[in-house]
Design brief:
The chain is mainly β. The chain is built from no helices and 14 strands.
């Protein structure tokens, strides 16, 4: 059981020399083959990364690093409440994480704001605000044998970004990305939705 009550705290890496790696990582180091019994809850926490340039919509503002604000890897029973991440290469990245309930997350000024990777299933994302990104949401399993499935985005807000959603179904062999729902999304100043 891991509970992080940020109480409005900021983890500020903006003046650091960090250019890669996870700024805040939770989960395990490997799969427990259904023996997992814990849960992870993070409340009221803000993470400010070291990226100095906004991602912009043109290649002139390519990121200078590859930092990940929050990494959820081999993380089960995840709850994120009022969590904010900004100025990272990737705001929040998942890998083998399920189920996830995220309420009121805000991701700003990241190249990839939310990146759902291998074996991320049963996600409910309620009212996420994702702004000023190259890619707001990327749903892409890293290999053809992995899957991202059953992701439900309820009233997501996408603003000032190049692409709102990028879904890679991989090669169509039954793995890849499927059962992805965007319920009542809001788009403003997004080049590609």
């Amino acid at each position: 059981k891991l509970v992080v009550r940020g109480n409005g705290a900021k983890l500020d890496f903006s003046d650091s020399a960090i250019t890669s790696g996870d700024l805040f990582a939770v989960g395990a180091t490997s799969q427990a083959n259904s023996a997992d019994v814990g849960f992870i809850s993070i409340y009221d926490l803000e993470i400010i990364g070291p990226e100095t340039l906004g991602p912009g919509v043109l290649p002139v503002n390519d990121p200078t690093g590859t930092t990940v604000g929050i990494s959820l890897e081999y993380a089960l029973n995840v709850r994120l409440y009022n969590v904010a991440v900004q100025s990272c290469y990737t705001g929040i990245q998942t890998n083998f994480a399920f189920p996830i309930v995220a309420i009121g997350i805000k991701i700003h000024l990241c190249f990839n704001c939310l990146y759902l990777d291998d074996d991320t299933t049963l996600g409910t994302w309620i009212s996420p605000e994702i702004t000023s990104a190259r890619y707001c949401v990327v749903i892409r399993p890293g290999t053809v044998t992995k899957i991202v499935t059953n992701q439900h985005f309820i009233t997501p807000r996408f603003e000032d970004s190049l692409q709102a959603v990028s879904i890679d179904p991989r090669d169509g062999t039954g793995t890849g990305a499927r059962s992805i729902i965007f319920d009542r999304p809001y788009f403003e100043s997004v080049t590609y939705d």
